DNA sequence: CCTTGACCTCAAGTGCACTTGAGATCCTAC
DNA sequence: GTAGGATCTCAAGTGCACTTGAGGTCAAGG
């Protein structure tokens, strides 16, 4: 639509860094881990295909949300790193990502709810509040507490019907 | 209501560890950072007041959500570490926590939405998709990209009306 | 051609969040 | 009163996710 700048489809590492806000050293590190890919010029410099921008953006968001890079890599799954991903490549990956995001969102919502509940009911100064003293409430169920945790984990059993 | 076990109100570090799922070494580390507090027995062993359970649980959830411990500490703000927090202590802290959680949740929702959009519109194989190639869409606005990021940050200006 | 800034590799260093180990003390139960 | 497990301190080590530095190459402008 606006072919004023024709950036011949490949980005230098510096351009990638500017556009994604990720340092060049980090981009090289991601490549070492197999999280992103690049082609090389005759003089051995990296050139990134345009679709890597999305990949890098996803990586940096995921990181901020607390996902370790190993999980990020796994979440990309079979999205190819060199060739431009196909529709179904992205579709599969998106499902995986959304699953992870949803889990995380629900963990947050749960915590938000618990905090609200405690404010709302005015019970905060009382010893009896189950939210303040989760162990008391859970003690009756048995010696397996963990209340606010357990819920934020990424389940390993992905069970993505292949 | 059920005074069968009367655990005289103070927990050992081992009990804390079991109930929260946080290792004893981590609990000592948190104490060193000033994130949790304890009293000592005559023999110099830690004893935790009951309300520390909540604090530790919050810490471990926050960590899983990607909050650095420095932010966690700041989020507790003026909730006292030694005395049992008052209603208004918790109320202030809860507001701060909820603010942070909400920001994070919105970042996730945004990302979820973008992923859905891309699946939904079937544009994934097209070069023109603004979500796939955010820089293209943003190029017209000026050279200040960053699209998916920028949104997950905890803003420093807390502006909690004291 | 030459300069200059972007880029390269590789090794080492950094900061966070812990864990591990050594050597000693505590405390509960027999 | 003593054995054994839980706890203590302090120092050093670990893993992740990078960053920094040294020493050198590449590529676009003058």
Helix content of chain A: 40-55%
The largest pleated sheet of chain A is described as:
3 strands, antiparallel
Global geometry of chain A: elongated
Greatest interface (CB-CB under 8 A), with counts per chain: A-B, 61 and 61 residues
What is Rg of chain A? 22 Å
Oligomeric state:
homodimer
Query: Helical segment tally of chain A?
Result: 6
| Count of individual beta strands of chain A | 3
Mean pLDDT of chain A: 73
Strands side by side in the biggest sheet of chain A: 1-3-2
Distance between the termini of chain A: 39 Å
Summarize the structure in words.
Two copies of one chain form a homodimer. By secondary structure, the first copy, chain A, is mainly alpha-helical. In chain A, 49% of the residues lie in helices and 5% in strands. Chain A has six helices and three strands, in the order βααββαααα. Chain A has helices spanning 13-20, 24-33, 52-64, 69-76, 87-120, 134-139, and strands at 10-11, 39-40, 46-49. In chain A, strands 1-3-2 form a three-stranded antiparallel β-sheet. The longest helix of chain A is centred in the middle third of the chain and has 34 residues, at 87-120. Chain A binds a DNA duplex (30 and 30 nucleotides) through helix 2.
């Amino acid at each position: 639509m606006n072919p004023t700048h024709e950036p011949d489809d490949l980005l230098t590492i510096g351009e990638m860094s500017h556009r994604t806000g990720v340092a060049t050293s980090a981009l090289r590190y991601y490549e070492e881990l197999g999280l992103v890919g690049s082609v090389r010029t005759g003089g051995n410099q990296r050139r990134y295909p345009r679709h890597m921008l999305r990949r890098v953006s996803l990586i940096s968001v995921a990181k901020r949300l607390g996902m370790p890079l190993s999980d990020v890599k796994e979440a990309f799954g079979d999205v190819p790193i060199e060739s431009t991903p196909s529709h179904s490549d992205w579709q599969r990956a998106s499902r995986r990502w959304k699953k992870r995001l949803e889990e995380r969102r629900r963990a947050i919502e749960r915590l938000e709810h618990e905090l609200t509940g405690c404010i709302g009911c005015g019970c905060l100064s009382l010893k009896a509040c189950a939210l303040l003293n989760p162990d008391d409430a859970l003690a009756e169920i048995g010696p397996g507490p963990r209340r606010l945790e357990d819920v934020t984990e990424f389940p390993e059993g992905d069970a993505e019907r292949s």
